[in-house]
Amino acid sequence: MKRRSGGFTLLEMLVVIIIICILAGTSLMLVNVFFRGQGVRQGAMIVTQAVAEAKQMAAKTHRTVFLVFSPAKQEGWLEIHTDFNEDGIYQGDQKDTSIDPDPAIDRTKIELPKFIEFERAPVWIGFTPSGYVIFNSGFTEMQASSFDAIMNGSNPRAVGDVILTLSKRGFKMCMDLDRASGKIRRSFFLNQES
User: Fold this and answer.
1) How many CB atoms neighbour CB 155 within 10 A?
2) What's the pTM?
3) Do the beta carbons of residue 70 and residue 77 sit within 8 Å?
4) What are phi and psi of 116, to 5 degrees?
């Protein structure tokens, strides 16, 4: 009986194709798991940069500067406003921008990544020239010790002064602001996906 040399049988080709498909599927799942939480991390970096920019602008202009958060849950954006009338309270955008007591600086919104929204945030945060943070009235600030105890406990849950979330997913970024220094003291990534 003669033996064939230098070829593959149909069965060998099917086995190789099945192995390649299994490896490709596993790789895609691993990449998907890795990238799913990146949006909230990127959103947290944007908020951190906006906080630093507002704080720096307050020191530079010697006026209180407000970081205003989007009011609607489905829209994730921030704006930086100056305290033009120097009363230390954000007055809000007016329909007529010529009478806006606290106008937005350059009128551009700082957009968060797609599908990222604020689960919890103050309406605005004020940064004084000395670096002190002012929260809007009615906002309950998260205490640093409570934040640490909950996040470092055996069953962390979403707490913080600012919480970003990925729509319809359990990925959250919890951020704690330090009132005295005006910096984001600590942030914590949380995966509550079920």
Assistant:
1) 5
2) 0.77
3) yes
4) -100, 130
Task: Give CATH for domain 38-191.
Answer: 3.55.40
Q: Are 141 and 190 in contact (CB under 8 A)?
A: no
Nearest-5° Cα angle at 110, 104 to 141: 80
Domain ranges of the chain: 38-191
Query: CA–CA separation, 156 vs 142, rounded Å?
Result: 15
Tokens (6 digits) for 11: 């069965």
116 and 76 Cβ atoms separated by less than 8 Å: yes
Q: Indicate the length of the chain as a whole number.
A: 194
Tokens standing for residue 167: 């729509």
Contact present, 84 and 66 (Cβ < 8 Å): no
The pLDDT tens digits along the chain (194 residues) read 566 567 778 888 899 999 999 988 888 877 766 666 788 889 999 999 999 999 999 999 999 999 999 877 667 889 998 888 888 888 875 555 556 577 777 777 889 888 888 989 998 999 999 989 999 888 888 888 889 889 888 888 889 999 988 877 788 999 999 888 888 888 888 887 65
Distance, CA of 150 to CA of 170 (rounded, Å): 17
Token duo for residue 153: 């406990």
